[in-house]
Specification:
Helix content: 10-25%
Number of helices: 9
Number of strands: 21
Distance between the termini: 53 Å
Order of helices and strands: HHEEHEEHEHEHEEHEEEEEHEEEEHEEEE
Structural class: alpha+beta
Strand order of the largest sheet: 7-6-5-8-9-10-11-18-21
Largest sheet: 9 strands, mixed
Shape: globular
């Protein structure tokens, strides 16, 4: 079946919605057939019933399959008991990220997270025959399938590697652009070392249940960046992976069984919703985002939960009602700062170890000998009685997340000299 009518409608919709803004990205979307890079996907149901796996023949597609593949939704292609492990991202997000990358013919690009290979093919179309696209994925079966299907479409400039994306692909470096298509708790120093001096990195940095999309550049030997907006992507696996300190889609039903309804203290439009949650997460790691029921709030195991439900126009509290006052104070601070938006935040690098750590956790840090060791967990802002060797006595309050640092094996090891200046990434939001 000829899929051209579906592709044309799909691209026209992406243009009309503002996802595609340049001729190069438009041409790539028209030339790469998404359905040729998919063999199975999960059909997500709006009624929250379990998704249904669909076996798709890329050479003989069915109209219902094409309707899903050329929609604006994510295509989940690998699933385990705890959720999905691989996908083809939402096309509007993919288009926006390609526009932000500002790819040019001849560019060398490193992609972290191969998925179906669709994004790598789009990048290959833009960088052309003299460019190079290296895509790394930790799942060997994902890489094997993507390589096989891409070969059938004819993209010799795309190289797929099975491995941990944290380490990048040094054998193909340096790169003009590096893009992560997975949510990352921090920036890998390996990516920085594999970047050309004039290059840039586009990475979704996990924060507060969201993945703010950050564009990072090297300027005078230091890392700086800008939050470009909101994204939602699967979390990275491997060395960079860490359990999120923020609570996302908690099972709230038991806690809210005897909840009390209180007045809504804030009227926040949906376009401001992510900015408010982002801001609260900078100030308080008890923040969470809930999908069912929809809303945001604070959760503390010993005290309960407060949940703002914008669609219902109320606030519910299960447990200690003082949580309501604490959340209202956070909202008031956001108001007093004239409601700073997601995109008013910036990033900076530091050679000092300054980490925001969640309760009861620690982090790998570089000590004075240049080796990595375990830093004991402390409450945010608490001054230790005896500073741990290599740890600062003051912890930085800012947009930061804990990072497990272990280089070249357990127990800590000598860090490559060229990484020493970028071994810690400190992210702070500017009001």
């Amino acid at each position: 079946m000829d899929a051209k009518p579906w592709i044309d409608r799909y691209v026209d919709r992406l243009k009309a919605d503002g996802g595609i803004t340049s001729p190069a990205v438009e041409s790539a979307f028209r030339r790469v057939p998404r359905h040729r890079l998919v063999e199975t996907f999960c059909r997500l149901n709006p009624d929250q019933t379990p998704p249904v796996q669909v076996d798709h023949d890329p050479l003989n597609p069915k109209p219902p399959d094409l309707d899903v593949i050329y929609s604006d939704q994510v295509l989940c292609t690998r699933a385990v008991d705890v959720g999905f492990t691989s996908s083809s991202s939402m096309p509007p997000l993919m288009a926006w990220m390609l526009e932000l990358l500002d790819l040019q013919p001849g560019h060398r690009v490193l992609e972290i997270g191969a998925g179906t290979g669709y994004n790598a093919a789009l990048v290959a179309e833009i960088v052309g025959a003299h460019g190079r696209v290296v895509s790394v994925d930790i799942q060997e079966d994902v890489v094997a399938q993507a390589a096989r299907l891409l070969a059938g479409l004819g993209y010799p400039q795309v190289v797929l590697r099975a491995g941990d994306g944290f380490f990048g692909a040094p054998e193909e470096a340096p790169y003009d652009r590096i893009v992560a298509t997975v949510g990352c708790p921090d920036l890998s120093p390996h990516w920085v070392c594999q970047l050309r001096p004039e290059g840039s990195i586009l990475v979704p940095l996990a924060h507060g249940g969201w993945n703010p999309l950050v564009q990072v550049r090297l300027e005078n030997g230091r890392i700086s960046g800008k939050v470009m907006g909101h994204s939602g992507l699967m979390p990275i696996q491997g060395e960079l992976a860490t359990e999120s300190p923020f609570n996302f889609t908690r099972g709230l039903a038991p806690t809210l069984e005897d909840a009390r309804e209180l007045p809504l203290f804030a009227q926040v439009s949906m376009d401001q919703f992510s900015s408010l949650c982002y801001f609260i997460a900078i100030r308080d790691d008890r923040v969470f985002v809930s999908l069912m029921p929809a809303g945001y709030g604070l959760y503390e195991e010993s005290r309960g939960v407060v949940l703002v439900r914008p669609q219902e126009g109320n606030v519910v509290v299960g447990g200690d009602e003082s949580l309501y006052d604490e959340l209202r104070d956070l909202y008031s601070t956001w108001e007093s700062l004239l409601r700073p938006t997601l995109t008013s935040s910036s990033c900076r690098s530091t050679t000092k170890v300054r980490l925001r750590m969640p309760r009861g956790r620690g982090s790998w840090i570089e000590n004075s000998t240049g080796r990595f060791s375990r830093c004991p967990a402390r409450r945010l802002g608490e001054r230790p009685r005896t500073p741990h060797r290599g740890c600062p006595a003051r912890l930085h309050r800012g947009l930061q997340t804990p990072v497990k640092r272990r280089w070249n094996g357990p127990g800590g090891s000598r860090m490559p000299e060229e990484l020493s200046a970028v071994c810690q990434i400190s992210r702070s939001a500017e009001a």
